[in-house]
Amino acid sequence: MKIAVDTHTHTIASSHAYSTVDELAAAAAQRGLSMLCITDHAPGLMDSPHLLHFMNYHVLDREIAGVSMLYGVELNIMDRHGKLDMPEEVLEKQDLCIASYHEMCTTPGTRKDNTRAYLAAMNCPYVDIIGHPDDGRVPVDFEALVKEAKETGVLLEVNNASLKSAHYRLNTRENLVTMLTLCQQYQVPVVLGSDAHYRSAVGDFQCVLSLLEAMDFPGELVANTSVEKFRRCLRRFSTNGAGHIRKESHATSTPL
Fold first, then answer.
1. Any stretches that span the bilayer, and where are they (predicted)?
2. What is the mean pLDDT of residues 108-134?
3. Which residue of 10, 37, 66, 106 has the fewest CB atoms within a 10 Å radius of its CB?
4. What residue ranges define each of the domains in the chain, with the CATH number in brackets?
């Protein structure tokens, strides 16, 4: 299976990452990717960039080293009601928004608590992807998550770093098998992300592709096998990333 888009990468603006935008784009070109998404951590995480970082994305090139670029954010779910750490005025200008649970921002609750937080975040009209929902330290009702993904059009991420090197996550393979089985049952697409924090990890999907192959997971349910398919699978529809399908939101975002 050929993956055309890496949807989840971090630059040195997230100070626990180690490469620049240009370095990530060059790595994407070397890997044969057609599109790269820059998704630095939102300000709720302790070493993340200021809001101005996300407000100034317009100065960056839309194509670097022959690779189409999208610029967005990995949001933090800040409480058990799905609060997100970026104001709507900034969220609406992002090309792509991932919402993830990070224990440094929110202490995990019960399975019911965590599921409620994820579902609320998925109902924020700017959230496109749920990032690494595979961490067993944040137990979740995967059937509820998959059903909500089908209802909202939010993509669930299969995170390569979770399988490759994220020793601080728990039971990721078992949880991904559960989630992918349900996605196949309900015909819900997923997206593969490298979660690269250094250039050599950009476009590295080896671990997740091996898992999909072992499960005989259908390629038609993988959203980022082409740029065109990825755009079709996003909730937003725009050639320049400025538009978004809006719906009533049950999540809240941090005000300016």
1. none
2. 97
3. 66
4. 5-233 (3.20.20.140)
Whose CA is closest to 120, among 72, 83, 74?
Answer: 83
Q: Are strands 67-76 and 63-64 parallel, antiparallel or unpaired?
A: antiparallel
Beta strands in 8-109 (DSSP E): 35-41, 63-64, 67-76, 97-100
User: Residue 229 contacts by C-beta under 8 Å, 6 or more apart in sequence?
Assistant: 223
The pLDDT value recorded for residue 20 is: 98
Residues near 175 by Cβ (< 8 Å), separated by ≥ 6? 133, 134, 135, 136, 142
Q: How far apart are CA 57 and CA 191, in angstroms?
A: 23
Q: Which residue has the tokens 């399988």?
A: 163
Residue 161: closest CA among 195, 212, 204:
195
Q: Are 160 and 169 in contact (CB under 8 A)?
A: no
Contacts of 191 (CB under 8 A, 6+ apart): 7, 129, 155, 156, 157, 158, 222, 223, 224, 230, 233
* Number of Cβ within a 10 Å radius of residue 210: 12
Backbone angles phi, psi at 196, to 5 degrees: -70, 130
Residue 246: per-residue pLDDT: 38
